Amino acid sequence: MTQKNFEEDFLSQQFEANRDHLRAVAYRMLGSRGEIDDAVQEAWLRLSRSDTSDVANLRGWLTTVVARICLDMLRARKSRREDPMGPHVPEPVDETREREAEMADSVGAALLIVLETLQPAERLAFVLHDMFAVPFEEIAPIVGRSVDASRQLASRARRRVQGAPVPETDLSRQRKIVDAFLAASREGNFEGLLAVLDPDVVFRADQAAVRLGTLPEIRGADAVAKLYKGRAQAARTALVDGEIGVAVILGGQLRIALRVTFSGDRIAAIEAVADAEAIASLEVEVLER
After folding, report:
1. Which tens digit of pLDDT belongs to each residue from 209-233?
2. Domain 112-166 class?
3. Which CATH architecture best describes the domain 168-286?
4. What is the DSSP letter of 265?
5. What CATH number does domain 1-107 carry, 2.60.40.10, 3.40.50.2000, 2.60.120.560, 1.10.1740.10?
6. Which of 97, 111, 140, 190 is least surrounded, with the fewest CB atoms within 10 Å of its CB?
7. Distance between alpha carbon 83 and the CA centroid of its chain, in Å?
């Protein structure tokens, strides 16, 4: 047996040892038995093409990979991989009807119905953290948000799962905060900006936003207020993946989306998303004034 074949065989064994776990993650993320194997097999493909020599926790690595795949599938269920997976893909182990039923029972039909009402990022944060104990530090890069914003996603999802929908009053209050922030920004009202920014507010930008001329990270109310003073002329309060945020519309197109994290009655974090592919995956609804 060659070294390459030995390594492939070892990876295959490690993957099979984690297959049931990955299927459990995928089932809770997708709620569809028909899509489970698509997600798990795609995880194998990515594993077989990756250098995992420095991966200390392969189970955690695979969990992250299958979570990313499921997130993409949730955002665009119609994109299914249909080309052959290649000769080295391990075949799924045979599973009895009783085993499938056991998986469904362990989740519960009622819970799956509630999970279907969540935004993709909310669902991922809740499933990984509350069901599989994945820390928010690992969830944050998967959903492309800060640790605090990821924690907020899971919290919102948890309330819905527990039968306590996020009160409309919360969204209404948050909208007023963002409306005040944008108004102060347009008017160049520095004090008005400080009034709605948390003293420790953090602004973060993706690489596309950085190319437009901003810094990747800015900390503190004074610095963030200076950044936005006299700006936001094309910005509108919007729902971004179901949460209060900001949409920057230029030439009739969404160019930048701002995800906003709140702490009480102030803005604690702003994340600017300008990457075209990332924006295309967002659900953005501009709110009428």
Report:
1. 999 889 999 999 999 999 999 998 9
2. mainly alpha
3. Roll (3.10)
4. T
5. 1.10.1740.10
6. 97
7. 27
Model confidence pLDDT, tens digit, residues 104-131: 445 566 677 788 888 888 899 999 998 8
Instruction: List Cα–Cα distances, 236 to 23, 179, 195, 200, 205, in angstroms.
Output: 41, 8, 19, 24, 18
For residue 26, pLDDT over 60 is answered with yes
What are the start and end residues of each CATH 3.10.450.50 domain in the chain?
A: 168-286
Buried b (16+ CB within 10 A) or exposed e, 240-253: bbbbbbbbbeeeee
How many residues are given for the chain?
289
How does DSSP classify residue 55? -
pLDDT band at residue 169 using 50, 70 and 90 as cut-offs:
low
Residue 77 burial by Cβ neighbours in a 10 Å radius (0-12, 13-18, 19+):
exposed
Query: How do strand 197-205 and strand 266-273 relate by DSSP bridges?
Result: parallel
Give the bridge partners for 262, in sequence order: 267
